[in-house]
């Protein structure tokens, strides 16, 4: 007979498939066990994080050769670095000697030196120096190279994957391109990059980001006042690799409208914000004057690494009389927004532990949560969309 944990896993995945199969009009939130079961976390590591693309950050955070950003995929530390030829490449962030982690966070260097024994690497990953190894027979440093991590840059974002068979990012996000390309976000100027750890399940934070239903309540002191939720729009067609919504900002909004010097955007784009979630865990708010983003990495069932970044449109930065002062004010504002979200998602994680927790019906404003449910069902529960479902969704 199957044990209790196995039976609960089967029941959770069956419920996930049923939610994916059904319509938004009849959908509920996902079952609590999906956020708290160790068996689900093990499935996610194998079927999601080992397979899909993950966003390290903005290519603009790597402005010159030698600039790097570190990241992790499951238990694999990685880093991306701009080479002397200008190309951004990804590598295993583990020294070839005694397996010390090579870099932390964000930085720059002319050569990459291990902090343990100073084994030294060129910017393309080649080992070029290993002190006191001349007495080791047959050892030739230049025959060694850090393992490469598959890396692609799309519209200014740097993505990495451990899966050599994953389709290219540009192919997966082809339908998103017309919505974001007019903004030319690859030219936005980074003003913040932070890493935090929040006490929640990564899926709860992803879901919270992608729905506007909570904005007038949870964010009433910050962004909620400027976002008329009734103006939220979703594309008719659904996509396997991402979900997206758009909304507009009126003249009262502090942020979110095109600067008069912006000559890139015309018509409704000048006051429209695009909010994509690229599955599994890269999400951003792209406005005519700024963008901000989250990229998530589960640390455990109830802890998630949160990478948070902000960038400003170049014409906005060009007219700032005091960039540091205005940057500090902007970050203070987003600190308040993030604190509001952290309160919610950590409370949600406490809630899903409750024996009496029950998922409720979804609002039309939570369409993207149903999209996320379908993505998870495809990855974890073997669900596949039928032609009939595709026609109904459109």
UniProtKB/TrEMBL annotation:
- Cofactor dependency: Fe cation
Residues that span the membrane, as ranges: none
Question: SUPFAM superfamilies given for it?
Answer: Bet v1-like (SSF55961), ISP domain (SSF50022)
Q: Which residues form the Rieske domain?
A: 53-160
Single GO MF annotation: oxidoreductase activity
Keywords, A to Z, come to: 2Fe-2S, Iron, Iron-sulfur, Metal-binding, Oxidoreductase
Please give the CDD domains that the UniProt record associates with this protein: RHO_alpha_C_1, Rieske_RO_Alpha_N
Q: What is this protein called?
A: (2Fe-2S)-binding protein
Q: Which species is the source of this protein?
A: Hypericibacter adhaerens
- High-level lineage: Bacteria, Pseudomonadati, Pseudomonadota, Alphaproteobacteria, Rhodospirillales
């Amino acid at each position: 007979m199957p044990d209790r944990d196995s039976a609960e896993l089967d029941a959770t995945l069956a419920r996930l498939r049923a939610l994916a199969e059904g319509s938004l009009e009849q959908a509920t939130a996902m079952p609590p066990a999906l956020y708290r079961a160790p068996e689900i976390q093990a499935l996610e590591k194998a079927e999601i994080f080992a397979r899909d693309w993950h966003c390290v950050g903005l290519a603009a955070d790597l402005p010159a050769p030698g600039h790097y950003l570190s990241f992790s995929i499951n238990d694999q530390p990685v880093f991306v670095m701009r080479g002397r030829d200008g190309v951004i490449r990804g590598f295993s962030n583990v020294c070839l000697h005694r397996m010390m982690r090579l870099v932390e966070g964000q930085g720059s260097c002319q050569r990459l030196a291990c902090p343990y024994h100073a084994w030294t690497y060129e910017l393309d990953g080649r080992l070029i120096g290993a002190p006191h190894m001349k007495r080791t027979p047959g050892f030739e440093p230049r025959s060694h190279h850090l393992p490469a991590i598959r890396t692609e840059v799309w519209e200014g974002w740097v993505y990495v994957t451990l899966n050599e068979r994953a389709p290219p990012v540009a192919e997966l996000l082809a339908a998103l391109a017309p919505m974001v390309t007019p903004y030319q976000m690859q030219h936005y100027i980074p003003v913040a990059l932070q890493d935090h750890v929040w006490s929640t399940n990564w899926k709860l934070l992803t879901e919270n980001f992608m729905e506007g239903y909570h904005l007038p309540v949870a964010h009433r002191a910050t962004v909620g006042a400027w976002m008329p939720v009734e103006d939220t729009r979703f594309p008719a067609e659904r996509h396997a690799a991402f979900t997206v919504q758009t909304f507009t900002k009126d003249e009262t909004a502090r942020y979110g409208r095109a600067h008069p010097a912006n000559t890139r955007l015309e018509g409704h784009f000048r006051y429209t914000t695009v909010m994509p979630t690229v599955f599994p865990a890269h999400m951003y708010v792209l406005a005519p004057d700024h963008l901000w983003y989250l990229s998530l990495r589960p640390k455990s069932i109830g802890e998630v690494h949160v990478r948070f970044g902000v960038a400003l449109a170049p014409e906005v930065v060009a007219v700032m009389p005091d960039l540091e002062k205005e940057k500090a004010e902007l970050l203070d504002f987003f600190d308040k927004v993030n604190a509001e979200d952290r309160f919610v998602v950590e409370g949600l994680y406490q809630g899903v532990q409750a024996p009496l927790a029950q998922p409720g019906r979804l609002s039309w404003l939570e369409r993207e949560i149903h999209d996320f449910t379908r993505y998870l069902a495809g990855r974890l529960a073997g669900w596949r969309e039928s032609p009939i479902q595709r026609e109904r969704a459109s």
